[in-house]
């Protein structure tokens, strides 16, 4: 009778962030749905209470159904029968339980059968599901596609597809091709308008498609024949009820084995255009990728939490030299740092989510009414922050998730290397998070703009200006020193004025920024709840030392040293 | 099949599956304060059986009936969150101390008031008393057939129901005329999770007593939304005879409660000599533990 929501009070803590009042008030737009829908909230308290209670349902399903199924799902995996992907039995059970509980389409408007939840509880649900089973989290998380349809498709398409999500429809986003991975501009799958049938026809191959046999698929395809770059690509929605899709194979993967990764062949598959032609990659997929990256952030935090829980459990049970191993400094240091790190990436996750929430809600409102200039400014500001925090989050949370899984397995010793404990699965599941939806290296390419444009620095200075209790002021002092070092490091790198050199140092700079931002977020958490003070202190102590190392590396590095690293 | 009516009997019980050291008082009675109150597990199986019929025949209504103190309204809300349509709480000080006979009398009187109905579904037994008597006694008092140990409803129409029963050495399929009472075994499917929309719809559902006690400013809401009313019935409401209720209506008397402490069975010490080991092997072979 485990409940992953109630057994981790951090979730509730983040759900009760002061900014939630603004977010929920905005999202519910004067609580206008309350007369039309019997499940719509009447006021802020009612809405927040519903968030808690619904997350309790998610936590219960995660603890009682999804987590217990994770091992058999990992062993059994999906298979192809008659050109259909058949999920492992446990995956089917998980999906059925979530559907019956009405949890698919959490963030969709009520008129499409959704719950109209803001992003914060939606991302929390993703964290919970990921903690229960990192692989299943993909099948759950692909309901992001509904958000893309909602945001960009015509009313006709919205009415056709969106109500199906709450009924349990699954989704996929079909982007990658054999020769178009990180470089999506190279997508070749062809979309041709058939004048006679009045429909687009898709032809070509997609590879590494998560949940490729979904009921509803968003497909990136070249609609402008003869073009070679991203401007010739459009986004289409394909309904699996129609013919024309062959599931060629399911990949055999290291981890997230329950999540079917498919190779697909489209053969005159009928599809409908989402939004406008030529905006497929440059607008819609960029937006979809941002939600997916936020999703991987949630997945990383969830898997990290699971790894941490397993480590603590094992370290307290395992007796060596006459005492449980968590009593040894070498082990308790790891555990305490893990705990602080999980809290740090969780704080970054929900800070990012709040920015996404505010700008997306304003963006939806702007379709129905003119925003005031203040609202417009607020939307732009939050969007800028969201755009810069999302790659930072994806980078840091996924890298942390891997290190935490590594450390957890290490604490298990030889037992962790065997298949007898969940950690070996968690360790394998964690591995993909730094790779898909843009590798860590690509996240740095996006996040370095937050460094060079000063967005991160401005946020640090904003956080610095927030009033604190006096017990927390010494932590801020350390963060100010770190910020000064960061500024110097950035200036040093920019002064060289060489783009390859900036790229070379980029990761160090981005990680320095991440450490400071997470440090501030934890101090602000500690301001609201003093139980966060200790983890904040632990985190900042480590972050301070790490940033000093990066600072030293950067300030002792010369442009000419770059040639030592360049390869032919 | 339209307008099929099902009544589910449910009980709020102390969670005896998670017994801590404070579970019993010094006098040997259950310390209810130390145990969380939960939906009796087999009553959840019963609810699932009812909800599956409703899934198949959407015009079906499922009403949950529970007898207990005011806070038992919690499990009625739990049932509403899972798909039940209405709830009735049978509550009155005069019910206090009722044994299975008095309880089944009270429930049967409430059920008479809810007539007409097609099916009554209850859990086989509650985890606090473990008597498995209430369901069958309700059937007797209403003069209805009963099917116990139900695991699955194979088919149902307006006149009859076909049920798979889980018995000790196998299964049995029986057909009963309607209305009938079935009691459900834990081998039946687990109850579905709470549904987010139902939860948000029914989370303000209250009995009249709860409404008076709560400071919530939702009076208008209850006027507009009659489904938020969990009916609360007293002895008078169900026209029951007080003499047949509570302690006076309960012939069951607890004679003695004993604490049973499990002790280890007799053990035998073997040395690592060949004689001892071959002796043990012979013994195990002779009593068919091995071979």
What is the overall pLDDT average of chain A? 96
Instruction: Please provide the count of β strands of chain A.
Output: 11
Shape, principal axes of CA atoms of chain A:
globular
Please identify which CATH superfamily of the largest domain in chain A we are dealing with.
Butyryl-CoA Dehydrogenase, subunit A, domain 3
H/E element order of chain B: EEEHEHEHEHEEEEHEHHEH
Radius of gyration of chain A: 24 Å
Summarize the topology.
The complex is a heterodimer of chains A (568) and B (291).
Chain A: H1 9-15, H2 19-28, H3 44-76, E1 79-81, E2 84-86, H4 89-100, H5 119-132, H6 136-141, H7 144-152, H8 155-166, E3 171-174, E4 190-194, E5 199-210, E6 216-222, E7 233-239, E8 245-250, E9 261-274, H9 280-317, E10 319-320, E11 323-324, H10 329-368, H11 373-412, H12 414-417, H13 423-430, H14 440-452, H15 455-464, H16 473-496, H17 499-528, H18 533-555
Helix pairs in contact in A: 2-10, 3-4, 3-5, 5-9, 5-10, 7-9, 9-10, 9-11, 9-13, 10-11, 10-17, 10-18, 11-13, 11-14, 14-17, 15-17, 16-17, 16-18, 17-18
Chain B: E1 5-10, E2 12-14, E3 37-39, H1 41-56, E4 61-67, H2 73-82, E5 86-90, H3 100-113, E6 119-123, H4 134-142, E7 146-156, E8 160-167, E9 170-177, E10 180-184, H5 196-202, E11 206-207, H6 208-213, H7 219-224, E12 229-233, H8 274-286
Parallel strand pairs in B: 1-4, 1-6, 4-5, 5-12, 6-10, 7-10, 11-12
Antiparallel strand pairs in B: 2-3, 7-8, 8-9
Helix pairs in contact in B: 2-5, 3-4
